């Protein structure tokens, strides 16, 4: 023991001396820390302008601490028994949704009388006290980088949005492990400093972007004894430059989707990357999880969009030396970072493709007599490579779900038209309302081409018995994706737990996979004592040449269950096994995190795991980035 | 001594495992009760019954598929198209021509289920059943379970196969209970019966060639046809795991081809699950009873023909007792495969390309097949006569009626404590039960002067010794077909009893040897040796026949009758196998072909019997036992098959065969025969061939 202490002491002293020498050497370049911060800002925007991002350091000021999204926006059942969506931010905001309650009660066997309210405020006593590394804190103070160890800040960064995480927050459960402090770097150089200090003081770093993870990726490993520092990138949110000749933009990785799009739009451009979480998720997070956007058919997935990545690792900064659009220089090092889930370092800056804002955008929808016909149509569209920016196929359950979100109809005329449409589809065309499904479409481009494209897609749809069903239905489909997480909070207020998960699968297995996974869920629920029929619903959200991405919703009324979250997790586990047994992938875009680690070996083989491990060992031998995701 | 240490370990484990075994076997004791479906037929109009509304519910409520549509789905499937192209490339024929061939195969194969034909059968069979049988009993709870299963999953019906009646009976019962009619895999031989073949086709049978080994196209059409029906749930699939009717009334070791086909859609994720329903059909008297014995003795099976069927009408004047049909618990393939087969190994290969099943899958399917057959056995209903036949066969010289009665009662107790599904009449005096059994089977046994003995058919005129032997063998084999029905109940303890009596210090090894040796004759699930040994110990301990002090198995004072009964029960098999070994060692010539094997063993043995006179092992004359013995020797590498120019020759390792013979015959001696006395012209084969040429004379039927 004694000798151990001695040697570590000696090491520490040696390191201190080294860093002092380094500081002397670099002083000329870097100046002191106070100036660095300033320089950062000047670097960033060319002017000492203040941070324009949506996300403040104190996220809890505008966002829910125990649920999804903005504090001012939520679903509730009002006194008249009608659902409404509060706030002003969304298209549905301020509207009443007369059909939602019936749908909710009928689907889940739930009742608005059976409430399961959440704990209103965070009880500081359930948060373990911070284990600070004093030397690190001292050094950090010297850099001037802001940090906090307040309970609210730490708890906010201790979780993503998995069901069990949100459920625990609502129940006011005691936390086993949360970050001990939060730091807010302002720029790449700040991150370099933080990582250096973390290495020096053996502190565990967990990068935090938008906090929308659904893979337990942000959970602190309970066995971690070192000080855990959550590295919140939200203040690194500037577009550093924009190159119209090459159509690329160089952006700080902490920027969240909506800010990126807004800022690019101001210059007449867009990135076209629109994952369902884009309101809150960050560019760095997309890179770290291999995100996929709704409009990938036109713009590509994140791996197609990035031209250059700069990331800070314990070994130093990794980046390429040029911005060539494609290179043959051995395995693409970007692919070590894409999907690394914060285990290797922090992505600080990204150069990504941009596109001029499309001239024309049009939603659309097609109704098919059944899911099989819909899938066959999507397959054909993929085969002809004429997929619009987005094409999704919702199953019958989701179609009804979408309908339940129709706001109150203002005029009798609209009501009449609605009735007429329904009559046309179900009576004249003979569609069974319990079978029919709807595909939602989004076209983008110049007007003429959009209209041409639209015709092509509708013609294909017609050969599979599809009927065009209007723009409104299409748009509503996409609204559902943005409010679904808010709806989960509503469900949890009334004893309903819900979650979504996804996979990708070859075309020929799409139907069988959907059916088997749904059946497995229903059966597992029954076996585990769930008293009410669960909701299982799926949609095909992306099409590829050789397969599709499938997205499942799964929810049930948990009344009568002792431990609903545990039951939920068992069922989800079984559903994942079923997916894998039916030829589906472990994940299309959510990632692995800690939730799906156990299947990695089977998914990528032992050698594959070994490769990843050896990269981790080289890049981060001390496991500074110790969130323990992936491997 | 060293070897026996292994058995000791097993015995140590026994105390724990006995309870596991107990738990495994116990649920089978809770069997459903039966309802007689003929009762209603006797009280109401058959015509009305045949014409009543019939609207069964199908899987997930699909609408039934017209036969023509089904054919189109099959012909256009990716699976078949792939094979058609492949065959076309290999043969150089245009794909159109191959496609046409496929279409012809399908035409020959496909069923054309028609409700009118079903109604005709419903009417005709009602009439026939009422004259032939006293009762047709069905467990209605099983029917309810089946009804549920049909709606939830694709269902495969797996009945035992003892008689031509089986599949008509099955459809009849399902029609009666308003359940979806199955499509039935039938052997092509039925097609020979012109009119009847088509009738069967219209009642749901589809026909498959008996052998189509290398025919890729045939296999593709056939398997896709079955899978299409299964995947879509158009109808339950029915076939016989045993592959053919068991002529011996022992369950036959399962054939895997069709089972592989119906299970594959589950592994490929095309269906969520497949339910296998074991069904046990027990006949009190089998229509084909004496026919089977003759067939086993080498009188070839009469070709199926309509005129033959008409001639068989005379059977209508006989009483065949009752039939019991037991629908077992549906077995979920998904649950069975849990943890045994990794379905994701199917992910990396296109599902429409035919592929040999992986090893893991093969052994799973094999194991499943054996388990299903065992489930069939478990729910076979046994009649008192079965017990009596077992006793009579151990006393071929005849028994006092009073002794037979007394021993039957004793055996009944033993059978019940071994969970036999015995249908013993309630509240009837034992003497009555025995006498009515004898009356029903008066063709097999008779009572004269207070003694019960087997009836031996006596043709008119002078009888050669071979003919006498043949007649005797017919009656023994007929009787054995009843004893065989109870074997599955006693088999494991009986093998243990034999092992104990032969080699008391290496009991487990001896048991294991017998287990291995007999695994073609009996249903022994692959890999279950230890479990079966434990079950045997448990059962013998339970009935007090043996005790198991710390390290040993010892017979108790009261165990003697049980053990010697068991020994006698297996005696014919031990002797039979020994005769085969003897033949191979002493008699077989160099270049013995597989084809020659059966007649040669038969003549060897008949000569042995005729000239020594004192041998009682008639059963080795049965081709079934001869085949099984050979299969066992092949499996044990004592005999090898070598293919020489279209002929399969058997190469005998005399040393190995001799040592097997030694183990089998530890306490038994077969006298050597004088080689010069053999005269081929006197052989039984000749007799059998004569009989075959002349057709069966009525004197042989009785």
UniProtKB/TrEMBL annotation, chain A:
It catalyses: hexadecan-1-ol + 1-hexadecanoylglycerone 3-phosphate = 1-O-hexadecylglycerone 3-phosphate + hexadecanoate + H(+); 1-hexadecanoylglycerone 3-phosphate + a long-chain fatty acid = a 1-acylglycerone 3-phosphate + hexadecanoate; a long chain fatty alcohol + a 1-acylglycerone 3-phosphate = a 1-O-alkylglycerone 3-phosphate + a long-chain fatty acid + H(+). Its main location: membrane. Substrate binds at residue 488. Pathway: Glycerolipid metabolism; ether lipid biosynthesis; Lipid metabolism. Residues 175-357 form the FAD-binding PCMH-type domain. InterPro entries: Alkyl-DHAP_Synthase, FAD-bd_oxidored_4_C, FAD-bd_PCMH, FAD-bd_PCMH-like_sf, FAD-bd_PCMH_sub1, FAD-bd_PCMH_sub2, FAD-linked_Oxase-like_C, Oxid_FAD_bind_N. GO terms for molecular function: alkylglycerone-phosphate synthase activity; FAD binding. One of its GO terms (biological process) is ether lipid biosynthetic process. Catalyzes the exchange of the acyl chain in acyl-dihydroxyacetonephosphate (acyl-DHAP) for a long chain fatty alcohol, yielding the first ether linked intermediate, i.e. alkyl-dihydroxyacetonephosphate (alkyl-DHAP), in the pathway of ether lipid biosynthesis. Catalyzes the exchange of an acyl for a long-chain alkyl group and the formation of the ether bond in the biosynthesis of ether phospholipids. Belongs to the FAD-binding oxidoreductase/transferase type 4 family. Homodimer. This is Alkylglycerone-phosphate synthase. It comes from Oncorhynchus mykiss. The lineage of its organism: Eukaryota, Metazoa, Chordata, Craniata, Vertebrata.
Automatic annotation (TrEMBL), chain B:
Pfam families: Acyltransferase, GPAT_C. InterPro entries: GPAT/DHAPAT (IPR022284), GPAT/DHAPAT_C (IPR045520), GPAT/DHAPAT_LPLAT (IPR041728), Plipid/glycerol_acylTrfase (IPR002123). Coiled coil: none annotated. It comes from the Eukaryota. Residues 155-284 form the Phospholipid/glycerol acyltransferase domain. One of its GO terms (molecular function) is glycerol-3-phosphate O-acyltransferase activity. SUPFAM superfamilies: Glycerol-3-phosphate (1)-acyltransferase (SSF69593). The keyword Transferase applies. One of its GO terms (cellular component) is peroxisomal membrane. One of its GO terms (biological process) is fatty acid metabolic process. Keywords: Acyltransferase, Membrane, Transferase. Pathway: Phospholipid metabolism. The keyword Transferase applies. It is found in: Membrane. Belongs to the GPAT/DAPAT family. This is Glyceronephosphate O-acyltransferase.
